[in-house]
Amino acid sequence: MRAAALFRHQSLVLALASLACLPGVEAKEKMKTSVADLRYGVALYHYYQQDYIPALSELMVADTRDGIQGHSDNPELIAGGISLAFGMQHHAESVFTTILQDERRPEHVRDAAWFYLGKLHYIRGDQAAAEQSFARVSSNFKPSLRAQLQALQFNIRIRNNNFAEVKPEDLEELRSWNPYALYNLGAAHARAGNFKSAQEFFEELADIDISASPSRQKEEWALQDKAYTALGYSFLAEKKYRAAIREFTKVRLEGPLANQALLGYGWAAVAQEEYAVALKPWQVLRQRSLMQPAVQESLLAIPYAYEKLDAQGEAVKEYHTAEELLAREIQLIREMRATLTQGELLTLVGSEAFSDKEAKKILRGDGTAEGAPTAVITDDGQNWLKLDKTSVIKTRSAYLNELFAKNSFQTSVLDLRDLLRIQTLLQQWQPKLEAYRELLLEKQASRSRHEQQSAQQLLAKKQQTLSVERDQLAARLQTIASAENYIALADEDTRALYQRIERGEKTIQQMQAAGQNTADVESRLNMFKGILLWRAAQAFPERMAEQHAELKTIDDALATVAATRQRIEEVTLTSMDIQPVLARLDVLRKDVNSNLQHTEQLIDQQSASLREQVDAQLATHEKRLNNYLAQAHLAVARLYDAELRKQPE
């Protein structure tokens, strides 16, 4: 699986919180308490709401425009971290490449990018890539983070079997990471069979001064218990039984390593044939939860010690008790295997996340509640800047603790949770896209019913009015042109004077009818009439041109109205503005359905993989218990057979 979500909210700006503590940050780069860019604020809002995909989308959209101003490299670091956490390797690589290749970026920003990139590679098991990234971090990197970096580099050396030359004094600069490195190196030497060197590291760890901090005390006590236990078993392997017992007795009885220490104590005593001494720690161990392998082994160790003490009756009794308890525990595991189906695990992983405190309370219960859940999802380990905490799923079952403690299993759970979130998001988009499509179709239908009618009616009326005006003007111009009626296009004063001439002509006609002599008046009237006609004739071509221009304007207006009506008709009939959107929606619907189908396939594969891992883990425990049960059966049979042989024939 590619996706791995590794982040959750912090109280301060995500990347800024880490950058503010790095060296080289001047006073002018103090941590911001408010956002200078609204888009960055929106992205942070989604981030704090644990809506990581919308947060990343907001950053990517802003980046395609003019970027985010006023927050330096923080948005890019967040975008790169979220992308890596979701397995978006190519996008994350482009973001970090931009940061790391730009020489203008501050050194502390490049150091942070290399460090967290290397840490992510380390968590995912790519040791070579992690080592390369860590090597690029400068020596000026913040000391506390550099200590963590060096501790991880030591772990890489351990996995590459390149740790033989490392001495305890070489780890002094690791600060709070020093105890972990001491134990890891001691364990590495022990696995290699170099018990003397292993003991040096374990003894160094056992001698550390316990911190005054309560939270640190618990961790350091647990580490010291591991050191004492490891020392005990290393001495046991060297047959230094007294030394082994001395180390086992230093382990706290209520600590997480107490069971292994009690078991080792007993075997060290047995090796010295002190069987009565061996019974004491084993009987204490026997009272503890049978889910612990050490307790299960003690069920056979106790009757074995009784056999050595020649207490055959007690041995048989203890073997029978072991048979009963082991059979009961095997049945419990079988019931767990039947209960933790693929569907049940899917429901568990997709359930509500609890805080670490709530999770512990739920898992603890009253210690005997049958309805208490086997495992719960927590909100730990979700921050990509805190990859040392990845316990997203916790259990009260010791049978599953070993599996759940693995980073690979935790990552698989995170992958599945991400896929379930994506599935939910895609499922939410399906009805939304359908609703958008229905809205567009309704808009199209509404336009056909109302907008077309009102718009077309208004334009038709306007077109009719213009047509009448145009025809009237065209007819008038035709009449004027054919009659050469210059006065018709003359200015207002000329037409007014010409009307007076026409009235004068009527008056002359009346005078002539009355027998009066009008020659002199008629001569002057004709002269004025000629002057007016000459004046009108001079302006006639210009006036005619103006009228034709007005006619053309009306024709253009009519053409515009006709074109508008045609466009409305086309838009209404073909929905030219809606159809592209509908086509895009159809593409999106197909994409969503296809992605949802693919996501569901991945969910099925991932949940099946989790089921296989859980079932394989439980099967391993069942196999071991069956082996112990078989040994108990054989031991009882052997003791009965030995007793029968003693009976006289």
Characterization of the model:
This protein has helices spanning 14-19, 38-48, 52-64, 74-85, 89-101, 107-123, 127-135, 143-159, 178-191, 195-206, 214-237, 241-248, 258-271, 275-286, 293-308, 312-339, 342-349, 356-364, 398-404, 407-483, 492-513, 519-574, 579-646, and strands at residues 375-377, 393-395. With 649 residues, it is mainly α. Among the domains are: 1-162, Alpha Horseshoe (Serine Threonine Protein Phosphatase 5, Tetratricopeptide repeat), CATH 1.25.40.10; 340-382, no CATH class; 415-577, Helix Hairpins (Orthogonal Bundle), CATH 1.10.287. It has a two-stranded antiparallel sheet. The two termini are 69 Å apart. 30% of the residues are buried. The model is unreliable at 1-37, 67-73, 366-371 and 381-388 (pLDDT under 50).
Oligomerization:
single chain
Name the strands of the widest sheet in spatial order. 1-2
Q: Give the termini distance in whole angstroms.
A: 69 Å
SSE ordering: HHHHHHHHHHHHHHHHHHEEHHHHH
Cα-atom Rg, whole angstroms?
47 Å
The average pLDDT is 78
CATH class of the domain at 415-577: Mainly Alpha
Secondary structure: number of strands: 2
- The CATH topology of the domain at 415-577 turns out to be Helix Hairpins
How much of the sequence lies in strands comes to: under 5%
Largest sheet: 2 strands, antiparallel
**Stretches with pLDDT under 50, minimum 5 residues:** 1-37, 67-73, 366-371, 381-388
CATH architecture of the domain at 415-577: Orthogonal Bundle
Structural class given helices, strands, pairing?
A: mainly alpha
Helix content: over 70%
- How would the global form be characterised? elongated
